[in-house]
Amino acid sequence: ESSEPLQSMAGRGRLVPCACLGLFGVLCWVWVSFASFTDDQLPPGAPDALDRGAFQPQSALSEMEFASVGPYRGPGNNDRRNNKELPILLWWSGGLFPHFPGDSERIDCATSSCLVTSNRKVQLYKRTTSIIFYGTDFRAYEAPLPRLRHQTWALFHEESPMNNYILSHGPGIRLFNYTATFRRESDYPLTLQWLPSLDYLLGPVVVSLEEKNRLRRKGLGPVLYMQSHCDVPSDRNRYVQELMKYIQVDSYGKCLNNKPLPVHLEDTATATGEEAGFMNFVARYKFHLAMENGLCPDYMTEKLWRPLHQGCVPVYRGSPVAADWMPNDRSAILVDDFASPKALAEFLKHLDEDDEEYAKYLEFKNPSRITNHRLLEALETREWGVNDMSKPNYLNGFECYVCDRENARLAAERANRKAPKTNRPPQSKMANNSHMGCPLPSPGYGHVKDLPADDGWLQIWPQDYWQSLDQAEGLESLIRLNESDPSLLWKHIQNMAVSRARGKH
């Protein structure tokens, strides 16, 4: 789920699907180092790569070709250095490398320039100052080694928290210095990544209320549910199953299916690309159950924005702060505002029977009724676009963010070396839980203590969450002990488990 933003940028020919490899039952190992720590936190013996000739292979760039300088240069960019003098940014997740053709390119950003590449041969090169990772692909046992003291790590992670819960724990997210995530607190927020523009929201209602009422009289349900991923951390099926006891829900996907899709819509790819036939089919419904696969602040996908675009009312459960981004205070129905599925069903029935009250949820289609200034300002000021060729995509935007800040960091280091008494060294930067942290998964309906021990959801997602914490703490332990043998991670996790069992952890 939620891979469309990356796929929509695939026109340059380099993006590939990213597999979700769950942490449940899998031990991930890592080589670790010290770039996230200040000097006084470093354990004895940490390598100082700036003074180690072994980390400066002279031929690292010999087989690489960098594209010539393009015609565009940021208005504040006076960087006239040639390619051999620029810092290098390495995209460790090559499938996301936002350039084509070739594997290396010069970028001229707002205030400075860098070389960017997906060629891992430059990993140990002195001028490789930052490595950019894709969160879904980040696996401890695949982390680049050694992590040099002069290198920072950057995290790009716009997908569901379920793809890698290790990033939702402090020890995991602290590995990174720069972040671009769905959280508004990240360094380069991607919060509205699924909302292309204000015009997307303002588009006309696809199916009129009169037509929806006519279809209701012919037996169409008031509520649509369409999901094909059934076993997810948010446990949405459990809630929907309870809701179905009190109101008609037409469910077309693999999950809780009670109606067949028309044959011409059975290819699920039509849903991903907003194919017209599929969009018109689902637009017939008054209410769309918009249930995210993970519940995390600011994690909002097409499940929320697409019904608003079509002129349907989303019945939403996902980001607990989704109201912060709605067009006004009456445009979506938030599941968590209701004490029970029964109470929600009663409210939906009331709106289904009262055209005047229902129509109030569509008033935001009139621009004057959009009152959320946070939403308007975010759409107006974001520098990246979604399917907008006049703006960079957010992959290019984030690499320029890292480029400018790495150049500023390097300049501050040079100034400090020249005149330490008058120029302070740059402050170390480290991500924290506000950049990504997502809570422990909880049942979609009811209390966890009431679930049977053999419940499938219970056996997977809470364990996945806690096992990822063990891994994150194991990584942090290895860093503090200056260990680099990945086989020791299991030993650390075992030791922590024993300590926890004895009440010492």
TrEMBL record:
Membrane protein topology class: Single-pass type II membrane protein
Domain Fucosyltransferase N-terminal, chain residue ranges per copy: 86-189
EC id: 2.4.1.-
Pathway: Protein modification; protein glycosylation
Region annotation Disordered: where it falls in the sequence: 414-443
UniProt cross-references to Gene3D superfamilies, sorted A to Z: Glycosyl transferase family 10, C-terminal domain
Gene Ontology CC: endoplasmic reticulum membrane; Golgi membrane
Family from the record: Belongs to the glycosyltransferase 10 family.
Function: Protein O-fucosyltransferase that specifically catalyzes O-fucosylation of serine or threonine residues in EMI domains of target proteins. Attaches fucose through an O-glycosidic linkage. O-fucosylation of EMI domain-containing proteins may be required for facilitating protein folding and secretion.
Protein name: GDP-fucose protein O-fucosyltransferase
